[in-house]
């Protein structure tokens, strides 16, 4: 019922992970963000085994992306994987990816937005900002993914109409969103996102819960976007892959690294097991798609997100954050506002 304790997470972690969901993806196009390693790579392999028409591995590094495409071909025998470059720390790269898709991407049936990075600091302990002026993990985990989703939505709507299908947008969130709420300094700000993403706000204490906060933002974004899509053929949901062995810990050091390493040894899922959650969110639940709209998925079932997200305070904040987000992204790409207006008027 919207609550999750640390003991509850441990209990979930020890549950048997259901087998991977399958579907016939012949002729369909799947895009997986962050597909060169971990959850994204394992999910891409599953989609390849479903004989997708195309699987686009969207990666930041050309070298690592090419190696991932080669590994995918070797592991699955699938020959229609493609590497497309996207760097979520640069809005210009996100826009270039969307522009390329508009020109040569064709249909878009599944978009898996799998990206997460931990906050980082410079030698003085100050939060690292992107060239766009935002705290790095916030831009990567939230702003860039939101921008990409909105810019690609028209293509997903077009795909639905042309092929009588239900494209899906899957945002990778996390159960850690249960353990955080946004601070009054953010909630009461005239521009919550600017405050949240600023160097001044991002003290060492704030950065300590930043990853949790960005995953809560993923939940808010999913629910807000789904509300505006209404009964659109596009299904938007967010998914908890569970605690998995991953490269996220490459950004940790000291006590935190030792703690995460120990927990991984005790209860972590493999990245392949975690990827099954992403795949289910993308192809599962076909018997009642409406039940997936805007929902939070864990262990291949629909679950309630946190009480904070569901409560009145969370609902009000969700709407404020959405309006704030569209305003900020409009300054990055003016297409954002017209796309959202069109979606709202047609839902």
TrEMBL record:
Keywords: Oxidoreductase
InterPro entries assigned: NAD(P)-bd_dom_sf, SDR_fam
Database matches in Pfam families: adh_short
Record flagged with keyword Oxidoreductase: yes
A GO MF term: oxidoreductase activity
Keyword Oxidoreductase set for record: yes
PANTHER family: PHOSPHATIDYLINOSITOL-GLYCAN BIOSYNTHESIS CLASS F PROTEIN, PHOSPHATIDYLINOSITOL-GLYCAN BIOSYNTHESIS CLASS F PROTEIN-RELATED
Protein name according to UniProt: Short-chain dehydrogenase
Biological source species: Crucibulum laeve
């Amino acid at each position: 019922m919207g609550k999750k304790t640390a003991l509850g997470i441990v209990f979930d972690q020890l549950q048997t992970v259901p087998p991977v969901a399958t579907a016939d993806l012949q002729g369909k196009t799947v895009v997986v963000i962050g597909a060169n390693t971990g959850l994204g790579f394992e999910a891409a392999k599953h989609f390849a085994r479903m004989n997708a028409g195309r699987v686009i591995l969207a990666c930041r590094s050309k070298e690592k992306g090419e190696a991932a495409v080669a590994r995918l071909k070797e592991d699955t025998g699938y020959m229609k994987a493609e590497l497309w470059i996207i760097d979520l720390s640069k809005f210009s790269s996100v826009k270039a990816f969307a522009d390329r898709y508009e020109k040569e991407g064709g249909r878009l049936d599944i978009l898996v937005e799998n990206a997460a990075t931990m906050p980082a600091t410079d030698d003085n302990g100050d939060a690292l900002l992107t060239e766009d002026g935002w705290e790095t993990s916030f831009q990567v985990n939230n702003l860039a993914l939101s921008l990409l989703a909105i810019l690609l939505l028209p293509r997903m709507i077009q795909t639905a109409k042309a092929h009588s299908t239900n494209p899906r947008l899957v945002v990778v969130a996390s159960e850690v969103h249960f353990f955080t709420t946004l601070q009054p300094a953010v909630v009461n700000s005239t521009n919550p996102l600017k405050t949240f993403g600023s160097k001044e706000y991002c003290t060492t204490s704030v950065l300590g819960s930043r990853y949790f906060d960005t995953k809560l933002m993923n939940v808010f974004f999913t629910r807000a976007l789904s509300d505006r899509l209404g009964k659109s053929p596009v299904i938007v949901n967010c998914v908890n892959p569970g605690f998995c062995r991953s490269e996220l810990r490459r950004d940790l050091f000291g006590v935190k690294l030792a703690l995460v390493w120990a927990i991984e040894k005790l209860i972590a899922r493999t990245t392949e097991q975690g990827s099954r959650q992403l795949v289910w969110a993308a192809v599962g639940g076909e018997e009642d798609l409406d039940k997936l709209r805007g929902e939070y998925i864990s262990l291949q079932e629909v679950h309630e997100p946190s009480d904070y997200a569901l409560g009145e305070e969370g609902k009000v904040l969700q709407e404020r954050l959405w309006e704030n987000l569209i305003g900020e992204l409009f300054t990055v790409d003016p297409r954002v506002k017209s796309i959202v207006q069109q979606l709202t008027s047609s839902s």
